[in-house]
Amino acid sequence: MSVNKLILGDNLEILKGMESETVDLIYLDPPFFSNRNYEVIWGDEGEVRSFQDRWSGGIDHYIAWLKERVEQMHRVLKPTGSIFLHCDWHADAYIRVEILDRIFGYQNFRNEIIWSYTGNSVPKKCLPRKHDVIFWYSKGNNCQFYPNRILIPYSPLTEKRYNHIDKDGKRYKVSALKDGKQEIIFMKEGKYPDAVWGIPIIRGGESIGYPTQKPEALLKRIIECASNEGDVVLDPFVGGGTTVAVADKLNRKWIGIDQSVAAVKVTELRLDKQRDLFSDPFAVQLYKYDYDTLRYKNAFEFEEWIVQQFGGVSNTKQRGDLGLDGKMPDNTPIQVKRSDNVGRNVIDNFLSAVKRADKRLYDKNIEDRKPVGYIIAFSFGKGAVQEVARLKNQENIIIHLVKVEDIVPIAKKPALTVESKTVSRGEKGIWEIEFAAAGTSEAGIEFYSWDFDHNPENGFRADVMIDKAGRQTAKFKAGRHNIAVKVVDNDGLESIEVIKLKVNGTVERAE
Q1: What's the rounded Cα separation, in Å, for the pair 272 and 482?
Q2: Which of 129, 169, 317, 501 has a C-alpha 20 to 30 A away from that of 259?
Q3: What letter would DSSP give residue 149?
């Protein structure tokens, strides 16, 4: 199973395609049963469609919509795995009784965790509801649980009572016994949390502008208490990306799914921003793929990826392979050409390589009138097409020519232009500059992101993740500055433009 992947699509269909018992921990924060327009956060086509789907018919329809997804989650969960389902008062009772008890079993209920958060609300018709519910169920009796990892530090007052420190740095206190003797009592590392978690809502620098974003501290506690490093964490409603961002920091493998282009692309930006030299790579799976990115990416990476997309197994040797890049499940060879207008000579060389690789299979495929091999390329020239037709008609040799666009849908990435103008020169030589980005795409533009201190070696690190209008104002001191803007269209394809500015008495575009 491929992990460390963000997937754009309906989580039900994607879950159905996953292997059974391959996930260690699932956290999901599905849309609440509130039928409010504020649930539509990103506003893109996928999210709106999902909102309409689950609201076509009351609570029964909502529970049925969620239940068939949780059934698939139960299937992909390992026997030692757990699920944490986040909900609120609108449907928590229905979710527990009609979904979790029925699918996971009443006996596998572990906790009803109350996430309590602060805030001032004036009571009107009822007391303020300042909590959500997280139902924790395991798949079986032998579930992973590590409470020592989530100890809550003691307060400074408690530390003060343990006013001695031994040579190993451990705090202890001296207590007098009835017989006049003294007892040394060491302070534990912390206290175990109960099922009520007082964790503040998002504030300050952690916020990405996603209204229902969950705090990293909440997901950190869940992931640490119910999984190990290297385990697979799944979030089928990725939203603002907190689950996968925390899982990545904690050295877990992860899979994130969402039907919203904006959710997937913002989560990608969030992961990019926190990455370092030791971070594992991750992939983003969209509905469509950018031609330029595929056409000019690393040849070996492309070969491996497109062979797998075609349903074959890639050749990992890369040397002494007669130019064959993979094979189908029946061992029929595959060759990949990361080029356009593939010519007649490729057909000749491929046919020779296929014969040498496995003459018995080659002869059998001819006898059975099956393809002796497959060639994958972006396009084929007239000579290649004619030679394949001749081989089939005159020699009963079938070679299938497969275009990349027949395997994966391809589109053109959006075009992007960026203009800048000086707004004002403030005190101490600080200049205020306004930027205007304009993207065009047949699919339509979803949003823009900005990196005001862009370093090509570090990649794009968004200072502003979500900008629907494409306009930003920023301040700069004297010196050279790289400003990068990224545009994302409604297919999830993107383009980046970098502006180089020289600020020194004036503002100039630098080369």
Answers
A1: 18
A2: 129
A3: G
